[in-house]
Amino acid sequence: MSAAETGPTHGYNFAYLDEQTKRMIRRAILKAVAIPGYQVPFASREMPMPYGWGTGGVQVTAAIIGRCDTLKVIDQGSDDTTNAVSIRKFFAKTAGVATTTHTAEATIIQTRHRIPEHTLKAGQILVYQVPIPEPLRFLEPRETETRRLHALKDYGLMQVKLYEDIARHGHIATTYAYPVEVAGRYVMDPSPIPKFDNPKMNMSEALQLFGAGREKRIYAVPPHTNVRSLDFEDHPFRVQQFATPCALCGAEGVYLDEVVLDDRGGRMFVCSDTDFCEERRAQGFTGTMSPDWKGEGANGGRQANER
Amino acid sequence: MTATLPSGAGFTDAVGQTQALFRVLMDAMARPGSIGRMPFDLAPPAPLTPELAAIALTMADQEASLWLDPGLSAVDAVARYLRFHTGAPLTDDPAQGAFALIGDPRHMPPLDAFSQGLEDYPDRSTTLVIAVEELAAATPDNARAFVLEGPGIAERAAFIASPLPDDFRAQLQRNRARFPRGVDCLFACAGRIAAIPRSSTIIGGV
Amino acid sequence: MYVAVKGGEAAIDNAHTLLAHTRRGAPEVPEITPAQIAGQLTLAAERVMAEGSLYDPALAALAIKQARGDLVEAIFLVRAFRTTLPRFGQSVPLDTSAMAIERRISATYKDLPGGQVLGPTFDYTHRLIDFLLEAGAEVPEPARADAGDAVVAPRVTDLLDGESLIERETRADDAPAPDITREPMEFPASRDQRLQVLARGDEGFLLALGYSTQRGYGRTHPFVGEIRFGEVAVEFVPEELGFPVPLGNVRLTECQMVNQFTGSADKPPQFTRGYGLVFGQGERKAMAMSLVDRALRAHEFGEESGAPAQDEEFVLSHCDNVQATGFVEHLKLPHYVDFQAELELVRRMRAEYAAREERVEEEARE
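^ Those are the sequences you sent over. The predicted structure of the assembly is below.
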């Protein structure tokens, strides 16, 4: 049986990539898992979607996905954003795998910019799309230099940058792609997730894989691994607090999108994780802007990650 | 042509089987000390074990060379089988192999004989694939067990793999001390597989 | 009442249908064929082959049609197709001195063996819009050299080499050249890696960089030793045969820029080389490439460096238009999660600022 006959899309292999490319990516993934937080160079291929639109994540997913997997793809926390739809369709077409929008049902979740609100479980794999994998890139543009700094575990530049933030603004002015230290060794870019999501990376039961296609890097955080957001003793890491619960499902302690309702300052805050929000509404939870709003206290203060 | 074909079959469904096996390998590496199950069997020429053959066929190719231990490289049929099914260059130098296949762990070279990677590129190291005769889960108080802590491990993981060189525990500890340089070890036996990546801390005396 | 936006999938499908419709244009105008593009918009198709790094005129023409004439989009289509092709190995090095020459000019010699062959060029045309083309006028037959009267034209650099006036560039080993599409690049890059990146690099970007060296940002004292364009045979040695077999011909433009070098402690004064080679007739690109190649060698010759065109990481990391267009255009994707985080920060910082101002005012009043 030729490889071309094994995939549902005529002329292309299962999950689009040829087997040699998959092997190359798989070798990089094994190394990435063994050296948590270290960016493994890999011979990223041109993919049929543009660089910067998730080619790294797509290559990682294509290299690991099998016929028995169930795939979920989110962008900004939502399954319905155009790029999430496009990537989900790509794998449904080229690999014929089952897809889902439910976090709990997925074995592989490819994401851009968010970590789902449901706590991920053992056996799940979270694949991040990464635009700029180098956490030091905006402090030092040269690859030859940043590679040396990682080798020497010299992260003084980053400390100075964060400290200058504090001196100037009174707090660290980085709100997303907030750098983390992995397993006490490498400083790593968590991809442009809001720093709200950083704590979810720490000691997660799920395997976290990161793919940067244009920059040709793969890195990983194994399950049960220490992921510490960089901070200072007198300025500990803190996440954003939202003043109101989700206007549709009443969830608290979750990341919210601000939706502008009119041009007179009207706005509402709703869950960024659309699957989480829909599930809660299906369970009867309501928010202030639900048609069947049940009033304060009706939700019993249920929050994310409390199931 | 048939005269040059090696004995021993490869995968019947290379795309599906290598994907399934890779996931087992990745999971083993991501959860050091856990025992994974290999989903199927191969029939390579002895003394190459089915587990070693399956891992080689899954991971090696023209771009990733193989080092064979003396027991394996002495058998011509083994080299021919691997060349035919993987296309990987075979090397005599343990420091040149992307993967090292070890059929006789009692007499394996020390871990530091293999490529340790560079400070700037620690990924350029050898991954060892070791055929053991016993591979089983254990409790951390078992004196024979490798007891591990570190990334991928909730508290502590423990498993038994044997035979291995007497000073293997000390070698693993020195390997850990070289982090992020160092080698990663896969142990395979009777359809089971476990890993000790360089990131694992080895608990206990030598 | 807010309704979560659904139906992204249907919207995408509709957009694609509309794209196909728009691509076709007015139905009363005949549909353009890839053969017309390959045959009449040849330079567009050749640029797509060069930067798509795949020699296939018909495929390049089809990609241009599919891309509605957007060459960067067409280059992207060709690259994505190329990456799925099996790779058999490396060809025998091309012998451009054996090129079937259609055009060959040298700026360093008035006349030379093989002569100056102008070929099909815009160079001496007056750039006046030719309204006759609109009417589809007949074109006169060009003058042609007699068949069998093939031009024998040694490369200008070989002539200089006869006097040892130009640096020798020979590989010390038979090792296969690295392939930037198979191995991630590492800095500093080898020259063969650099040339591969430049050969598929964006014409506009390299043109601007080459131009910058002429204006003093990393000057290299260049002369066009030679530009030649024509067909060259490609040969390949299959493992099982052990001798080269011809695969076919490709049309290439080669530019050898000759640059002054005053010598160093261990090298006598001599000319050095900047090299450009592209698929098709791509003189602008080949010349720009050779200027940038030479600029990137500044370090090798111990020349003063620091200009953008001499900065290897800067040039090689940014000259690929498929990468560049993807990342620039990805800003179109939703970023509202991160923007939300920034909104919160800016609001908080404004509140802190206002509170500070208020305190200052209060203190002033007291």
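Confidence is low (pLDDT under 50) at residues 1-7 of chain A. The longest strand of chain A covers residues 70-75.

Shout if you want it in another format.
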